[in-house]
Design goal:
Order of helices and strands: HEEEEHEHEHEEH
Strand content: 15-25%
Protein name: DsbE family thiol:disulfide interchange protein
Structural class: alpha/beta
Family: Belongs to the thioredoxin family. DsbE subfamily.
Keywords: Cytochrome c-type biogenesis, Disulfide bond, Redox-active center
CATH superfamily: Glutaredoxin
Largest sheet: 6 strands, mixed
Shape: globular
GO molecular function, one term: disulfide oxidoreductase activity
Subcellular location: Cell envelope
Strand order of the largest sheet: 1-8-7-4-5-6
Length: about 180
């Protein structure tokens, strides 16, 4: 009995280390959203105060494909991702809407004034309720919505050139059909 009590913590430690070892090289951007292939949630976001683009709502996400990017001025990866969003917009012409996550309007305006504003619309999600409805884990996150208002792709974390080339652009081509 004494040996069993001595071995139990060792067995638990080995099991825990095994779980971590098998998860260590897992790509965290491959979080499958339960909203994939489902209509976007019902919401209405006001514009960021003082920004020269409108807010948006559920109905705004129909008619043509739209890339929806969740960002915040305090998010360092958002800053790194921003030039890629500008390039996607310039190269594809896809509509690009932003959900400004938990941010003061003056900070969001300063962020976009400094880095440029590629967004056709930016909704202020100060209380994070819309982000929660979209299943956002953190910022940045990017969604591709088809012309019917259905979420067809989600990327968790900052977009990379590789993710854009191998995942996002093919998904965009599929829905443009």
């Amino acid at each position: 009995m004494r040996y069993v009590l001595f071995a139990l913590p060792l067995i638990l430690l080995v099991a825990l280390v095994s779980v971590f070892a098998f998860s260590i090289d897992r790509d965290s951007s491959l979080v499958r959203s339960v909203l994939i292939d489902k209509p976007v949630p019902q919401f209405a976001l006001p514009p960021v105060e003082g920004l020269d683009v409108p807010g948006f709502e559920t109905a705004s996400l129909t008619g043509e494909p739209t890339l929806v990017n969740v960002f915040a001025s305090w998010c360092i990866p958002c800053r790194d991702e921003h030039p890629l969003l500008e390039a996607i917009k310039a190269e594809t012409g896809v509509r690009l809407f932003g959900i400004n996550h938990s941010d003061a309007p003056e900070n969001a305006r300063a962020f976009l004034a400094e880095l440029g504003n590629p967004y056709d619309a930016v909704g202020a999600d100060r209380d994070r309720r819309v982000s929660i409805d979209w299943g956002v884990y953190g910022v940045p996150e990017t969604f591709l919505v088809d012309a019917k208002g259905v979420i067809v792709y989600k990327h968790v974390g900052p977009l990379s050139p590789q993710a854009i080339e191998t995942e996002l652009l093919p998904a965009l081509e599929r829905i443009k059909g």
